[in-house]
What does this fold into?
Amino acid sequence: MRVVNFAHGEFLMLGMYAAFWAFTLLHADPYLTLVVAVPLFLAVGWGSYALIMRPIVHTSHNVQVFTTVGLSIVLQNLALVLWTGDARFVRTSYYASVINLGGAVLNLAQVVAFVLAVALTAALFAFMRFSYTGKLMRATAQDRSAAMLMGIDTGRIYALTWAVGITCVGAAGVLLAPIYPVYPTVGLQFVLIAYIAVVLGGLGDMAGALIAALIIAAVEVIGSYTIGTSWKEVLYLLLFIAILVVRPSGLFGQRGSETLGV
Amino acid sequence: MRTYALAIAFFAAAGLAPLVVDDAFLLDTLVLILVWGCAAGAWNIAGGYAGQISLGHSAFFGLGAYAAALCGVRWNISPWYGVAIGAAVATAAGTVIGFLANRLRGPYFVIATIAVSQVLLLGAARWRGFTAGSEGIPVPFRAGFWALGIADKRIWVWIVLVLALVVYLSQLYLERSRRGFQLAAVREDEDAALSLGVRARRLKVAAIAASAAFTAVCGALWAQYVGFVDPLYVFSVDLSVRFSLAAIIGGLGTALGPFLGAVLVTTVETWLRAEFGGLGSHLVGLYLILYGIALIVMVRYAPQGLMGLIYKR
Amino acid sequence: MRGVTKRFGGITANRGITFDVAAGELVGIIGPNGAGKSTLFECISGFYAPDEGEVELEGARLTGLSPDLVCRRGIARTFQKLRPFQGMTVAENVMVGALTRTRDVRHARDQAHEWLRRVGLSEKANAYARTLSTGQRKRLELARALATGPRLLLLDEVTGGVDQRSIPALVELVRELHAGGLTLLVIEHNMRVVTAVAQRIIALHLGEVIADGAPAAVARSPRVVEAYLGQAYVA
It folds into this structure.
């Protein structure tokens, strides 16, 4: 779609709050909420596209940047006003449970989140690769005018692309809720990693993003082990900047794609 | 002359206000308006005039703030040195970011700027030995002009007003000078500008570096005024967004726009904070929701901001 | 140009292109779509660096220099897809070009007005560039490039999209510039225009030079005919 969504982290935050409220008010386990969250966020995605993104999809980068920044501000502060800035916790019964995998002690919630996330990513990848709609989306991404000439309703494809993106990040939020505290500005730290993963992996390459995310996680963990936990974020941020300097198109991206200005 | 009437009125009013106004709260608001106006104006040099939108300008602001604070706390020298040191370091940082600007376009550059400011945030918050970590640095108050320890808010207004005039005039310079025209060409269409012999890359770096330096000076003065430097605030993305918000609402790429935007943003904020601050600070978020919506609407339908509405280009 | 070769992935846009242009010549460059004409201009003007070969201007190496440096060395160009500075006035557009040669803004403004007069856009001087018609934009693009004071001007499809009535005036302008000593390389699809102004024509096809000589000879060359019209037409 060639649009960077600066409100991406805020939809993650909304996912986390969704899990929290479902848990607190309905005693619903987050993984159950996940099932409801998918159609919910599809709707949210569709709605936000129609309301906010559609008018600006063909405008300049600056307009797009500030529209999504504005959206980010609105969502963050909506959460702040409605639910206050206090950190919330989804303390499921298995919060502290661990499982033993060949000597490594892993937090259960994290493992489940990992497995489900990989599954979702694989499903998304398969969808993009093999389904008809997925092909439509990729075609539109490659050449908008050609796609239109082929009779593809690019407006709807964009709406779908956007909605799918929102759904993914909302689902991610639900998965993360049992593990991390929930507060209005929680989106930033995660979205930054997401951007780094996408750039490192190469813009427009999903498999690349996944691999890049794993690399970042590895760097983070190794870093916190060797240098100390307080510096690990600095490590991958510096890695990010270094990549931008040395190979901005990422590990798997096309050379020069970053200078096309998306 | 007519086009400058508003600017003259603004600066004259700001300059004369301390002579007629006594109320500390109002003077405080005026100082903040001018500081944020300067910061927005500095951002505007890179974002509006050079077309390099950045959401990491808090990096420069923070550098300036820390420079001033550390001068007072660690090295026991006048914070005016902090202003200079902050500006120098920020210029270097700005040059690095300018280098990035030449390798990335659009939103990816924005993300890079955010990353840089967050690196500094984390660095400042974690480097206990140097910056007293995430507790921040209280800026010591030593009376006297040389130590920038000034209790009288009226003098602060005039100090910041001088900076405001410099920032304003610098922007005007960019509207009339050779470099300014070339920069505008780069902003409009970099390749076309290149084909006409414009040194696009160099100009972009220079604009960002200048923008960084001004922002750092703002940060240094602000630190002395407010008396406390908190890394989580001073390097925050929120702060960066705030600079751009004021510039865009006021009029991107205009000399007076950032100041008008700052007037609007600051007055609403301080008023709301005064009204609702006690009830529950989370309600203060209300005005930010309005700004978010204003940003979304304005950037699409009134891209020239307040200046555009006033001057119907 | 010597052996200039430019590849994009699997496509060789320019293959071993070699020719010399003498000062004061007006050379037309023709060829069907995809022949590599614009790519050639990109290589000369510095927007692309050729994969092989050299570009030289009066002995000085130009290959791989950045576009702004190429311009300052004396080569200016227009773009096929017009690129006026939309947010600036017509005069300001030309000033940007003029400012490459002079530091003084006032002087640049005067020069800009002078060039606008020569291309016939004086009355539009204070209009915003985005309000111009295609023909006017072509002339603006020309004036802007000329303001940089080039020795060699690369014109890319200067009559493209211009209505028939305005073409003679444009052609006349090109002739005047040439008469004034300017060296010109002109990409054109309009054969009448090319044969009218060019002293020499270079024909490109699929990235290679297939003809180089006087207009009449080139027009009759069997390879050129074949390239444009196909095998069947070769007499």
Notes: Chain B has a mean pLDDT of 86.
